[in-house]
Amino acid sequence: MRMSLAQRVLLTWLFTLLFLIMLVLKLDEKAPWNWFLIFIPVWIFDTILLVMLIVKMAGRCKSGVDPRNGSQNMKKKAWYLIAMLLKLAFCLALCAKLQRFTTMKLAYVFIPLWALLIGGMIELGYNIFYVRRD
């Protein structure tokens, strides 16, 4: 299943728009919805991305694929998987805090987001300053 760039952009904008509309309705107190319902577009989009990523990673496990080819690509996909799981953990913790299911401090809610941002900065620095020596 291959999506063109235009389709991916349209899908991203659609889910973002739906999430923002639901968020505005909740913040204006027009809709008495649960916070977990507000984040459904985010979770649907993340689920689509996770499934596509896992399918691509699983495709490397089939027979006849040389494990040495594309090991850098697998590391990048593993980082993407970790980043998606950190984002999911942050969204779940945030919804639980906003819905008052937990009495966790707000600083603890943001730990997955901070880990994601630090990992992203390391990845960016690695991509900018890494020089291949052949």
TrEMBL record:
The keyword Transit peptide does not apply. Keywords: Membrane, Transmembrane, Transmembrane helix. InterPro entries: TM_Fragile-X-F-assoc (IPR019396). The chain crosses the membrane at residues 36-58, 78-100, 106-129. This is TMM60 protein. It comes from Rhadina sibilatrix. The gene is Tmem60.
